[in-house]
């Protein structure tokens, strides 16, 4: 359909510059341009330009353009008339047009030329809209994902050509959209950057003339186009009988799955356990790469024809997807069993169609919200599930999500009731034989009827289950935030220019309510302040005090130390709850009266009503937290099992006190969960410490269960896949030289590597190493990512997988919580042995509880936790029999401390002692 833009010439421009601040002496060093006619690239230009200044090393690393490359080139004054002529009568296109066009215009005007006034469009925004489920919109990632060939990323000529092909693909993709979707996109597009909307409106207007019928795979409700939802499940085959002997399994696996002795032994042990009525739980440790996920699904699958379900709980979304998209399809292919599997997750992960459609008519949103709305409109023409995770977003903090996440109700009678994504998901879950969920969801919804009668349960990555159950139950009361909500509410009701009082002063009922409400709000604020003062007064009873970098004082308490029998806080709390409920109810009545003033509901009043509604929702939230806290404090047993943290944002001000609470002993909750399920398998690559399950049994509260224990063997020779080195001449880990030595290893020894993980235990030290290596020319081909500095952990993980060469410097969840299934890791550095910091409140509180019980905290808690985390870090390397890698321990304590042997024994291959000089050769495979 090139005819739509037959008369338009696109000039796709990319600039390389010495920096981003044009007013501060930064200049263009390369101009690249690709000309598009009839949606084909017909010509390209590339000019190297002398900036008459030094090119920073970071720019050299990124672009490959050195000072020598531009030293003898003409300067911008020479190229300016050529550039003006090239761009004359064209549509200016760039990937981030608000950088390239203003920068180019600044250079032109500085040299006496008029600024360009061309129509200007942005391919970043267009790509997000046209391809809403891609994980990244960096140009290099887009060209890789869309299979656009361009040879020299970050060179202006190559990037201009890549962007030109991207634009053509975007236009062709938009042209395939249903007309109603294009019409809605066109109505929203005016808020896009510069003239970007012109592309969408031109396509929509042109195709509207053709009166295209809606393709058969779609349906239309109002102005929303959806994929038709097929609720019928495809049958995979018939019921089967478990293959008892090796020959039967060999026949079943033939041509589909390699027969591996260790995997078959694991399957057989699981099968025996499931069919043993005397046993109700099994602990399984199986090394990475042994096919343990397939094994447990296979063993349980043949038991699912009596109407019982198998529930699989994993810690992460990545593992859920792996089970659903890789392991279960493989099982069905091998066995031909007629089984159905579904993911179970929170309703908030699904799009609420009613809420989404309302947002489209709510006026002009901010830019990020607008683009997200347009992305969702396009995504709705593709998705059959409405699962927001398909959008590959790294966070759900945008204001839009509060309105479009499904609340989990039945949606009976709504316009979209028949196609409601959450209700569809529930229907599918009810019919499924296998349900895949996550640890946190299971912990909070174990009584849900969706699991069926007497279901089986597998807890994958079980070494993390107790901690995930605990963290899912932790909560807080942010008194300062509640105070802010109430202040904002008073402003809306009484003091803003468009307040309720000023606009409805002639309404008797509203004025009556407002007269009652204000003193109530003030009384509630006084109660909040009194609660804060009572907490602050317990300052000296804290078992741990930490001053955080942001100035907040963090005080940790055992329950009995913060709330004694005569606690004044416990006496005030019911009054606070009652007053909060009264304020919420009276505000609701005021809102109800405002709805009756329909004829006066002008635009500014509608916005006011929306804002008040939002404050009521927040009051509901804090009311719920108040009841949770009251329940907690009403039970002395709870107080003994829970810890409390005061977060005082200004240590000198009692009224800046906030309260967090956390579970220290999950035994009761874990046993409640276990009682709901049958024949539970706890599976992990790291369930043992010192070759026994004692720590796992304690952590998982399995002491009273009738257990089966099994340690599996690897399906391949680990010595051929893993090399382990420990450096003997590193300085003390607490010295400045230590961070510098780590940085030097990164800079000098990684030339032959592609994906490197540097595991640390301190975020400040991560910053030091990151700063040290960021602009090193030796690492110019690597994308360097650091926790706390390169975006969210999810974003870092995505960038790492996409990049051809990358280094992550991380702590915490990078040891074990984030998976990299889609890219091999060459080398893992353990910068320090991963002991938890005793300054972390949850660590100090947990350990104090153990101390009070007379336990040896180091032996019973610190060391086994560190060893399991250490093994998990090493496990980042070898995820399967095709992986090879090097594990490097930089912490010299592994040789000098008594506990070092425990870490060494946890490594499945012999650890080689090396000096820093010898390590360089090992890393370079010399």
UniProtKB/TrEMBL annotation:
Superkingdom of origin: Bacteria
Motif (DEAH box): 460-463
GO biological process: DNA replication
Keywords: ATP-binding, DNA replication, DNA-directed DNA polymerase, Exonuclease, Helicase, Hydrolase, Nuclease, Nucleotide-binding, Nucleotidyltransferase, Transferase
Any GO molecular function: 3'-5' exonuclease activity
Documented EC number(s): 3.1.-.-
Domain named Helicase ATP-binding: residues: 249-524
Entry keyword Nucleotide-binding: yes
Coiled coil: none
Positions of ATP binding: 286-293
Described function: 3'-5' exonuclease.
NCBIfam families per the UniProt record, alphabetical: dinG_rel, dnaq
Record HAMAP family: DinG_exonucl
Record-stated family: Belongs to the helicase family. DinG subfamily. Type 2 sub-subfamily.
Full protein name: 3'-5' exonuclease DinG
Organism, scientific name: Lactobacillus amylovorus subsp. animalium
């Amino acid at each position: 359909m090139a005819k739509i833009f037959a008369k338009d010439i696109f000039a796709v421009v990319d600039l390389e510059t010495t920096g981003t601040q044009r007013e501060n002496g930064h200049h263009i060093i390369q101009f690249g341009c690709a000309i598009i006619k009839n949606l084909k690239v017909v010509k390209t230009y590339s000019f190297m330009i002398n900036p008459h200044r030094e090119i920073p090393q970071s720019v050299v690393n990124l672009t490959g353009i050195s000072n020598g490359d531009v030293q003898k080139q003409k300067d911008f004054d020479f190229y300016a008339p050529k550039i003006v002529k090239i761009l004359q009568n064209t549509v200016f296109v760039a990937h981030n047009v608000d950088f390239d066009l203003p920068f180019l215009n600044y250079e032109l005007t500085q040299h006496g030329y008029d600024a360009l006034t061309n129509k200007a469009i942005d391919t970043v925004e267009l790509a997000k809209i046209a391809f809403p489920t891609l994980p990244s919109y960096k140009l290099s990632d887009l060209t890789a994902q869309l299979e656009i060939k361009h040879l020299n990323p970050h060179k202006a000529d190559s990037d201009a050509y890549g962007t030109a092909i991207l634009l053509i693909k975007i236009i062709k993709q938009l042209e395939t959209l249903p007309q109603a979707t294009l019409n809605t996109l066109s109505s929203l597009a005016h808020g896009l950057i510069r003239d970007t909307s012109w592309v969408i409106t031109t396509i929509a207007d042109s195709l509207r003339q053709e009166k295209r019928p809606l393709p058969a795979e779609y349906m239309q409700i109002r102005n929303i186009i959806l994929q038709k939802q097929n609720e019928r499940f495809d049958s995979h085959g018939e019921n089967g009988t478990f293959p008892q002997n090796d020959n039967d399994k060999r026949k079943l696996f033939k041509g589909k799955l390699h027969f591996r002795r260790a995997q078959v032994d694991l399957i057989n042990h699981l099968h025996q356990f499931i069919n043993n009525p005397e046993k109700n739980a099994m602990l399984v440790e199986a090394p990475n790469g042994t096919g343990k996920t397939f094994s447990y699904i296979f063993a349980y699958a043949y038991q699912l024809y009596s109407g019982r379900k198998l529930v699989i709980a994993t810690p992460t979304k990545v593992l859920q997807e792996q089970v659903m998209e890789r392991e279960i399809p493989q099982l069905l292919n091998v066995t031909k069993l007629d089984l159905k599997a579904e993911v179970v997750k929170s309703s908030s992960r699904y799009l609420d169609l009613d809420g989404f459609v309302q947002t489209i008519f709510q006026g002009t949103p901010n830019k990020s919200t607008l683009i997200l709305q347009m992305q969702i409109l396009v995504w709705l023409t593709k998705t059959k599930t409405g699962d927001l995770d398909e959008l590959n977003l790294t966070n759900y903090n945008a204001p839009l999500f509060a309105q479009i996440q499904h609340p989990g109700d039945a949606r009976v009678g709504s316009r979209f009731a028949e196609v409601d994504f959450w209700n569809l998901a529930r229907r599918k879950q009810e019919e499924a034989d296998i349900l895949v969920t996550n640890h946190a969801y299971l912990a909070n919804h174990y009584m849900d009827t969706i699991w069926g009668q007497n279901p089986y349960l597998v807890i994958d990555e079980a070494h993390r289950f107790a901690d995930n159950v605990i963290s899912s139950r932790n909560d807080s009361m942010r008194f300062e935030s509640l105070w802010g909500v109430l202040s904002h509410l008073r402003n809306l009701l009484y003091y803003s220019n468009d307040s309720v009082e000023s606009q409805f002063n002639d309404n008797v009922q509203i004025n009556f309510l407002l007269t009652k409400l204000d003193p109530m709000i003030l009384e509630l604020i006084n109660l909040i302040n009194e609660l804060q003062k009572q907490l602050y007064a317990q300052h000296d009873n804290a078992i741990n005090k930490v001053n955080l970098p942001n100035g907040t004082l963090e005080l940790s308490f055992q329950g009995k130390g913060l709330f004694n029998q005569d606690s004044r806080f416990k006496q005030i709390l019911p009054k606070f709850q009652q007053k909060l409920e009264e304020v919420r109810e009276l505000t609701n009545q005021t809102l109800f009266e405002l709805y009756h003033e329909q004829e006066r509901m002008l635009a500014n009043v509608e916005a006011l009503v929306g804002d008040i509604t939002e404050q009521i929702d927040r009051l509901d939230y804090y009311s719920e937290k108040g009841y949770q806290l009251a329940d907690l404090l009403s039970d002395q047993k709870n107080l003994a099992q829970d810890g409390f943290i005061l977060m005082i944002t200004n240590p000198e001000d009692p009224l800046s006190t906030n309260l967090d609470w956390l579970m220290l002993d999950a035994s009761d909750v874990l046993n409640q969960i276990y009682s709901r399920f049958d024949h539970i398998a706890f599976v992990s690559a790291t369930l043992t410490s010192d070759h026994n399950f004692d720590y796992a049994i304690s952590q998982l509260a399995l002491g009273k269960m009738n257990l089966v224990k099994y340690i599996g063997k690897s399906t391949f020779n680990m010595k051929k896949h893993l090399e382990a080195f420990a450096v003997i001449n590193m300085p003390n880990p607490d010295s400045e030289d230590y961070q510098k030595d780590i940085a030097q290893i990164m800079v000098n020894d990684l030339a032959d590597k592609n994906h490197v993980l540097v595991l640390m235990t301190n975020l400040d030290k991560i910053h030091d190493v990151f700063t040290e290596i960021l602009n090193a020319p030796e690492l110019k081909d690597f994308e360097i990512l650091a926790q706390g500095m390169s975006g969210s952990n999810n974003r870092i993980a995505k960038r790492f997988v996409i990049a051809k060469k990358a280094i992550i410097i991380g702590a915490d969840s990078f040891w074990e919580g984030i998976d990299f299934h889609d890219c091999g890791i060459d080398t893992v550095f353990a910068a320090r042995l991963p002991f938890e910091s005793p300054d972390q409140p949850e660590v100090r509180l947990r350990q104090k509880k153990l101390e009070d019980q007379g336990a040896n905290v180091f032996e019973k808690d610190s060391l086994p936790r560190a060893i399991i985390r250490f093994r998990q870090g090493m496990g980042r390397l070898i995820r399967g029999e095709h992986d090879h890698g090097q594990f490097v321990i930089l912490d010299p304590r592994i040789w000098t401390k008594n506990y070092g042997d425990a870490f060494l024994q946890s490594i499945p291959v012999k650890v080689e002692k090396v000096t820093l000089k010898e390590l360089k050769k090992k890393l370079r495979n010399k």
